[in-house]
Amino acid sequence: MDTNPHRYCVIMCGGIGSRFWPYSRTRMPKQFIDFLGTDRTLLQMSFDRISGIVSPSNIIVVSNSLYADFVHEQLPELPPENIILEPARRNTAPCIALASWHIAARDPEASIIVTPADHMITRENEFEKSVRAGFDFVESNDALLTLGITPTRPETGYGYIQIGEHVKDSISKVKTFTEKPELEMAKVFLATGEFFWNSGIFIWTAKSIMSALSEHTPEIASIFASVPPETYLDHERETEFIDRVFPTCKNISIDYSVMEVASNVYVETVSFGWSDLGTWSALFDLSPKNNDNNVTQNCNVLAYNCSGNIFAVRGEKLIVADGLENYIVADADGVLLICRMDREQKIKQMVTDARIKFGDKYK
Amino acid sequence: MDTNPHRYCVIMCGGIGSRFWPYSRTRMPKQFIDFLGTDRTLLQMSFDRISGIVSPSNIIVVSNSLYADFVHEQLPELPPENIILEPARRNTAPCIALASWHIAARDPEASIIVTPADHMITRENEFEKSVRAGFDFVESNDALLTLGITPTRPETGYGYIQIGEHVKDSISKVKTFTEKPELEMAKVFLATGEFFWNSGIFIWTAKSIMSALSEHTPEIASIFASVPPETYLDHERETEFIDRVFPTCKNISIDYSVMEVASNVYVETVSFGWSDLGTWSALFDLSPKNNDNNVTQNCNVLAYNCSGNIFAVRGEKLIVADGLENYIVADADGVLLICRMDREQKIKQMVTDARIKFGDKYK
To answer: Would you say the ipTM is above 0.85?
Structure first.
């Protein structure tokens, strides 16, 4: 393995995965589940994927303190001081700021790939090539690089990045970031060849991102710049510091606070079989189908007159279904969800409704 | 309470309730479940209902040996020797023959009401009046009396009894028994006023039914007539005898073997708010509905765009459902069933399929 000692990875895995409720729960979010039945969780798959490029000693996992045990158990290879635990949920900007100052304290010359843990990548060789090219670029340019996935369909569930001026190879300036489009607009996006799916994977040097954070979101940057590097190098002191200051950070995404406003934002267009695992229908699309066009996760299913469903169970269970088309059927920890696939965007609201009506036990 | 010491009751509760699978299971059939959320099981409700008419010491419960513990636990008032356990399932004729010879050994002058435990009766005063009138009739006539329920709708799920010559009050000769009719035929039945729902509740004297069994199904009757009355009065000897001979009986219903062929068959037409609890849709019809026209049994439900469903859970669970109409959703003991209500007649086949595919654990 060719791992450059200045290269680091930050895996962000503090989300609560509420879009996969009840299969993914606050107490067991999707990144900690063997979601695809491969015997590796999404977090483990993210770790495996990057560990050919970045030495495990340089992989930092940032999660919520709720999930400390999951991270330790699932990544025994990871040095304990590489696990950073957030005491509160504050979106990606504070998370990335914290990780950046932490890494810079270890190595001011560090370059960093930042990645969520809840996507799937099927072509790992391509991934490795793209990531290495990205590192090479940011190490010789003051660039905030985001990976844009070459779209294969007019997907309405993803954000898009429009490329601007071409720089070199597969790297261009970013012209715009756009929200999830309507179908007609997505078709136009696809036809122009200028629009790429926003993967949420970033590559930059510690210097570039700290500089950008300091410029564009100084109220967050100043918090993490307020202590000397030594604080980040002593796990106990660092933890005390994080627990104290992290909750005071404002809740904002790196996209909104930095990427959409900075002038040195670039996109590397890539094709490595990426899929967001953000939705049940994405999981359905990605999963192998039974003969009857249903997807089953971790359960025995007898299906009659059923098609287009995803059946997901945590814990042993037999599901017998008759006359269901295009439903999500998910059962875990005392909650059964049966929801039309095309209404899955309502699931977050359902979780909220359940909490209001029945209390926190079903979160 | 006015209980005539010659009057007995036989509650038959050995069925496995497979039509309510998986809520009702071989290991916990519906008669032993608090099906209507009243804190009394169907067996207990049957016992309560009859115990104003028949002394508890004269109530005999015939069940399958699998369910001995349920009967003992649920009916602590019942003398243990009043519980007769069948070692095998042989339908109603052997069950009734056994119970009849048992009761006749105690009291040759006994009259007997025989009733299943899986229906609901809402007007208990009417029930009591009807049963007393039935007892009075059979105690002065050699009559096999069945209770025919005045129909209130063209139900296609029940068998019907056509009345013949009127005898007295609400009692007539039976002209025919008919199977479950098609809807058009059921409408004709209702319009004529001659057809009544077959309740499966019978009243007769021990003498009359033993005589009829001996005449019409001598191969069964001879088995139970083969030992002296003393055998039935010694619980241990009786149990040994039953365990030995019962499995040798042929599997046949009392309707087919006796009621449809005997000449002294009468029907008492009654109206006491009877409903068969034989099907999910019957249970749906009987149960109070939520505002959104769903029925929930023993579970918290959040329903969106749902109507006409029955949600039944054994064990605590939250069900969140979106976009379901007219489904059965039943969850118990490691099995989840989601089935269109109009396909519930397929559930027995599903149970068989599950057993073939996954073994006996889901029975």
So the answer is: no
